[in-house]
């Protein structure tokens, strides 16, 4: 199965303040039955969180991005325009629409995220919150 990862799934992998979500994220990312996909937006957001909120040195955050060996959906003008249309048609913030656009464009069956309504289907992509059974921190 092909799955698009929203930034929060990757961030929890490094979040020592939330051990339950960290364990869940590690287990999810270790699944061998899933082909994961990310986008340039996800990589940028991950770098920003690692170097900002978690105060990871930039060289170490760059290494994390380099070692994250996943297919990347690249953002260009057409992609942004398509995401803007998605934002309009689904009443989404543009940054969420960019994530959804990347998942749909890369033929992902699911989008794993905390930022969408879990269980819904948008643009042919099923939304799954892999942390829904855990209390918010």
Written account of the structure:
It contains 6 helices and 6 strands; from the N terminus they run βααβααβααβββ. With about 140 residues, the chain is of the alpha/beta class. It has a 6-stranded mixed beta sheet. A hairpin with a 2-residue loop joins β5 and β6 (about 125-130). α1 (about 5-15) crosses α2 (about 20-30) and α1 (about 5-15) runs parallel beside α3. It is globular, with a radius of gyration of 15 Å. The relative contact order is 0.19.
Q: What Rg, in angstroms, do the CA atoms define?
A: 15 Å
Q: What's the helical proportion of residues?
A: 40-55%
Order of helices and strands: EHHEHHEHHEEE
Structural class designation: alpha/beta
The counted number of beta strands is 6
Itemize the secondary structure elements and their pairings.
Blueprint: E1 2-5, H1 7-13, H2 19-29, E2 35-39, H3 40-51, H4 58-67, E3 72-73, H5 77-90, H6 94-105, E4 110-112, E5 121-122, E6 125-128
List key phrases describing it:
single chain, 137 residues, alpha/beta, 6 strands
In short:
With 137 residues, the chain is of the alpha/beta class. Helices cover 48% and strands 15% of the residues. A 6-stranded mixed β-sheet has the order 3-2-1-4-6-5.
